[in-house]
Design brief:
The complex is a heterodimer of chains A (about 325) and B (about 375). Chain A is an alpha/beta fold and about 325 residues long. Chain A has eleven helices and 14 strands. Chain A has two domains: about 220 residues, P-loop containing nucleotide triphosphate hydrolases (Rossmann fold); about 70 residues, Alpha-Beta Plaits, CATH 3.30.70. In chain A, the strands form three sheets. In chain A, strands 6-7-8-3-9-10 form a six-stranded mixed beta sheet, with helices on both faces. In chain A, α3 packs across α4, α3 runs parallel beside α5 and α5 runs parallel beside α6. Chain B contains 16 helices and four strands. The chains are: A alpha/beta (about 325), B mainly alpha (about 375).
Chain lengths: ~325, ~375
């Protein structure tokens, strides 16, 4: 069985009357890509800041690599790579110098550091930009520099706090592929995001957070099994009569129907051939059918069913 | 470890545009403007020039003529004399071309002036002194052998306005502005001191958060950041003082090395002020920088940057303010080099600056040493 890398028990963090973390417990095993998923303000970054001993907390305990984490746990910090939500680099240093500076906080041997810096530059694909200053880099390249500064020293535990915010799709894919490669190379990864697609794509285990609580935890398959919904069928159609809607609702495994914006949505729980049965009813009544979709449940459905609200705000 | 941090702190500080603009270019421009604007006014208002006077009734070979001709040959003659008859002299006086008429036709010199002022006083002093000495000469007439010695004494006394160098420095009032300008630049060092603190605190910058996550002890990072800024500030001060001294030809006196030292320690004091304010856990860089710039200018105003008499007025009313005002202390340290031959007062000012620096740095360290933050 894999060793526990991070153990958080009953963590409580209050900001006056607001409870930012409410008895949060997490256990992250070696080799995992652990996702912390939740909407803005759910407590993901607060968890990371407490984990890194930046933020004081009211109650609970945090252990990393089996040792209590404190601000002076330099031996533990040496094994951690952190990529913050905000880009944290020197504006006046070149790409190379920035990575060398941050790598130098962990590795004192010059030759070893040089090798690490060059590998990090290659890893994030900034070979052509080593002499550039950060302000000359695009948003995506800047994020890649931010990542290189965090991983150049080859940490065993990498924490990425929303690293893809405001990043173009190409850079986002590059970043996500990079994280998976780091994991394949042996690093344990903690990844926070409110983009469920990213978390689904790269995380081996996920904790869903809301208002400082952990509302669910498991692999994505386990999480999806927690909810009733197994298939969502959508059909573009003129508004069906009450009789047709009733007939569809009474089909096996269908537990909810809704008509909105020229689209009939049917939620099913378990069973096979649900789509064929729904289309059969509509054809029987000789209705003109437009586009048809059949979707498997997403983490958003999980979040929606557990908390009663969507994971992401519409503007996200 | 320390040298690695120091190297990059130095590089990043050196490449900060703000440093080049506010700590090098701006002082040079301001210094040049000071030189152009104030030196003309100063020379006009403060430097001595000969007093124009018309002498009437003075024959060739008379004792007065000998005295006046003798004065003419000195570097800075007391009087700028013309000889004329009474009518022409009165015309010159009425036209404002002369300050007074010295009438030598009588037994004693008489003076006619058109108004009151320094020049008229000088003319009156000259006439009084001449009459007094003439009386001595007349009384000595019984012994003509003494006449030459008496005349020599008279000429010596006539050159009453003569600069006498007491110390190795420059006592010109005009240089005071440049002491205050150096003090202002030193206090502007606060703008780089702010980042030394803010870039190492997780609650004040993303950079600080990243550094706090590293295995580098915070005190070491802070020390490197502060040392880099001290070095940078020292370089800026040396360049600026050199520019004032060698390009603008501002006379800081003979002890320029001590002026450099005072400027450098003053710069450290400015950086420390920024470090202390930067370490306070609220407000972004812009706010802190604006406050510090305003405070620096206020302190410089109190030390006499904009009004040369301000420091004197404060000394008369609230003397303790001059002792606590960093700008006044920095300017005074250079000023006293030009007033006192020994360095006792200079050393006192230097120690005051070092104590202030130590207090501010300690304050910054105490605030910044916080292990965890209540909020980020």
């Amino acid at each position: 069985m894999a060793d526990t890398v991070v153990k958080i028990e009953n963590l409580v963090k209050r900001y006056k009357d607001l409870i930012a973390l409410d008895h949060l417990s997490l256990e992250i095993k070696e080799g995992e890509v652990f996702g912390l998923l939740g909407p803005n303000g759910s407590g993901k970054t607060t968890t990371i800041n407490c984990l890194l001993s930046l933020l004081a907390f009211d109650k609970g305990s945090i252990e990393i690599f089996g040792k209590e984490m404190t601000p002076t746990s330099y031996d533990i910090k040496r094994e951690i790579g952190i990529i913050m939500q905000n880009v944290a680099v020197f504006e006046e240093l070149t790409v190379y110098d920035n990575i060398d500076y941050f790598c130098g906080l962990y590795i004192t041997d010059k030759a070893e550091r040089k090798k690490c810096v060059e590998e990090a530059i290659k890893f994030v694909g900034l070979e052509d930009f080593t002499k550039f200053y950060p302000k000359k880099l695009s948003g995506g390249l800047l994020r890649r520099l931010n990542i290189a500064c965090g991983i150049a020293h080859k940490p065993k535990l990498i924490i990425l706090d929303e690293p893809t915010v405001a990043v173009d799709p190409q850079s986002r894919n590059k970043i996500l592929e990079g994280i998976q490669e780091l994991n394949r190379n042996g690093a344990t990864v903690i990844y926070t995001s409110h983009y469920m697609e990213e978390v689904e794509q790269i995380c081996t285990r996920i904790a869903i957070m809301d208002k400082g609580h952990k509302v669910a935890e498991g692999t994505k398959e386990e999480l999806k099994k927690m909810i009733k919904n197994t298939e969502t069928i959508s059909v573009e159609i003129a508004e069906p009569s009450e009789e047709i809607t009733k007939e569809i609702s009474e089909l096996p495994h269908v537990y909810k129907t809704e008509y909105a914006e020229d689209r009939l949505t049917v939620w099913c729980s378990g069973g096979k051939h649900n789509l064929i049965r729904v289309l059969g009813v509509l054809q029987k009544h000789d209705l003109h059918i437009g586009r048809v979709y059949s979707e498997l449940p997403t983490l958003n459905d999980v979040f929606l069913e557990i908390t009663g609200k969507a994971l992401r705000d519409k503007e996200d | 470890m320390f040298l690695h941090d120091l190297k990059y702190e130095l590089i990043s500080s050196l490449r900060t545009k703000q440093v080049i603009i506010w700590l090098l270019i701006y002082p040079m421009i301001l210094g040049t403007l000071f030189k152009v604007a104030f030196s003309g006014i100063y020379e006009k208002e403060n430097l001595f020039s000969s007093v124009p006077a018309v002498v009437v009734g003075c024959s060739e070979g008379s004792p007065l003529r000998s005295v006046l001709d003798g004065m003419k040959n000195s570097d800075k003659p007391l009087l700028d004399v013309k000889y004329a008859d009474r009518e022409e002299a009165e015309k010159l006086l009425n036209d404002g071309d002369t300050e007074g008429i010295i009438d030598a036709s009588g037994e004693a010199l008489t003076l006619t002036v058109a108004g009151e002022g320094m020049n008229e006083t000088i003319l009156k002093a000259f006439c009084d002194q001449y009459n007094s000495n003439a009386k001595v000469i007349t009384e000595s007439a019984s012994d003509p052998a003494k006449l030459g010695a008496v005349t020599e004494q008279l000429m010596k006394d006539a050159n009453v306005v003569e600069h006498k160098q007491l110390v190795e420095g420059n006592m010109d009032f005009f240089v005071e502005y440049f002491y205050n300008l150096v003090a202002m630049i030193a206090l502007f060092g606060s703008m780089i001191g702010i980042t030394a603190a803010m870039d190492n605190q997780a609650n004040l910058s993303a950079l600080g958060a990243r550094k706090c996550c590293s295995p580098r002890p915070k005190m070491l990072s802070l020390l490197a950041a502060l040392t880099a800024r001290f070095i940078l500030m020292a370089v800026c001060m040396v360049i600026t003082i050199s520019y004032f001294s060698f390009i603008l030809k501002i006379d800081y006196g003979e002890r320029l090395g001590l002026v450099y030292l005072a400027g450098t320690v003053g710069g450290m004091l400015g950086v420390s002020l920024g470090f202390a304010v930067g370490s306070i856990g609220f407000g972004n860089y812009g706010i802190k920088n604006s406050i510090l710039t305003a405070v620096s200018l206020l302190l410089c105003f109190c030390s006499g940057l904009m009004d040369g008499n301000m420091k004197i007025r404060i000394q008369e009313n609230v003397p303790v303010l001059n002792k606590l005002n960093p700008a006044a202390v920095i300017a005074d340290s250079m000023h006293c080099l030009n007033v006192f031959n020994d360095t006792k007062m200079y050393t006192e000012k230097l120690i005051t600056m070092l104590v202030m620096t130590a207090v501010l740095v300690m304050f910054g360290f105490i605030i910044t040493r916080r292990r965890k933050y209540a909020s980020l």
